[in-house]
Structures are given as C-alpha cells and as structure tokens.
C-alpha cells in the first residue's frame, strides 16, 4: 500500500486474502480497497479451494464493488494439493456468480486442459503467467477464447519477465491482439475501479 501511495502513476495494488479467514479477509477488503488505494483482489493462493462456500461472500463483495479477482489454480500431473484450486474450481465459482470477473492466474499450467476447462464460462479469463514459455499457448487461448479473454501475467519471482512476455510477443497472432493481452484487457476489467479511485483511464 505504501508503494502504491508513493507511485500512483506507476503502480496499482492487489490485496491478498484467504477464504479460510473470512472475517479478517472482509475487513482487509474494506481497508485496502474500499477505503484504501488497492484496485484488485488476489492472487488468492493455495490454502483453500476457490469453490468453497466462504468464497461466495468474497465474490459477492467483488461484484458489488466492481473488483476483479486473480485466482491461483493449477493442474498438477500427480494431482493437486487438497486445498489447491484447479480451473474447474474457478469455473464452479464463476458459474455461481455470473457477474464476477475472475482471472485464472496460470490457466492450469497444463494450458491445453485449462483453456478447455474455462472455454464456455465467459466471465473467466485466461492468465498466461507461470507455465513454461512453450509455443502454442497464446495462439490456442486466442483461438478458443478470443483475444479479449487472455491476460498477460509475469509470475515474477517464479519466472522471468522475458520468458513470460515472449509467450505473447512471439505468438503468431496480430499486433492488435497482443496489445489487448499485454494490457488492454486488464485495463478494461479494472476500469470501473480505476475511475472510482480517480486514476486516468
């Protein structure tokens, strides 16, 4: 929050919460977003699957306040951890809350399955962060979902900016589609909250 306040023209903030500590998380949403400088929820991590009932309260708050959720999810070859979400869990939550805007941070890691899992759920977006920079990920996402539902993510700390940007820049798609993925789509999703906060959009 200090960084966002110090550099409002260079950074937006996202608040980390957990449905396992729901009362505290709701207080944090109010403190950090409603009354503070943050504009987004997440990345919600691996301590609880996102399809549990407690997430409904968070999703309702997000919808009422025009806030996007970034959700960690994965499809591990040997099976996910018991509290780790999959793209199928994201879809379950999104279908319960059709006005919710939710980004699958990693689209399962196994992106061929992840893209198919979210394809028919229009309020779920494909995040490109975290998987290896293999050819075909972004092309398949654009083909199956449309470029408007694909959002660049770096997963920086776990991956390099270069490897993650390369997945988009090296994709066999149009420059207009790359522009949407690298910033236009996220800006569109965040626009209601950015306007509330007084940011230039």
> How many angstroms separate the termini?
20 Å
In CATH, the architecture is Alpha-Beta Barrel
Overall 3D form: globular
Helix content: 40-55%
> What percent strand?
5-15%
Strand order of the largest sheet: 1-2-3-4-5-6
Domains (count)? 1
CATH superfamily: Metal-dependent hydrolases
CATH topology: TIM Barrel
Q: Tell me the number of helical segments per DSSP (H or I, 4 or more residues long).
A: 8
Mean pLDDT, as a whole number?
A: 95
Order of helices and strands: HEHEHEHEHEHEHH
User: Which assembly state applies to the chains in this document?
Assistant: single chain
Low-pLDDT regions: none
Q: Specify Rg, calculated over alpha carbons.
A: 16 Å
Counting helices, strands and paired strands, the structural category is alpha/beta
Q: Tell me about the biggest sheet?
A: 6 strands, parallel
Tell me the number of strands: 6
Descriptive report:
The chain is α/β, with parallel strands linked by helices and 201 residues long. The chain has one domain (39-194): Alpha-Beta Barrel (TIM Barrel), CATH 3.20.20.140. The chain has helices at 2-6, 22-34, 54-64, 87-96, 111-118, 137-145, 161-169, 175-197; strands spanning 14-15, 40-44, 68-71, 102-104, 124-127, 150-151. The protein has a six-stranded parallel beta sheet, sandwiched between helices. Helix 4 (87-96) links the parallel strand 3 and strand 4. The longest helix is centred in the C-terminal third of the chain and has 23 residues, at 175-197. The chain starts with a helix and ends with a helix. The mean pLDDT is 95.
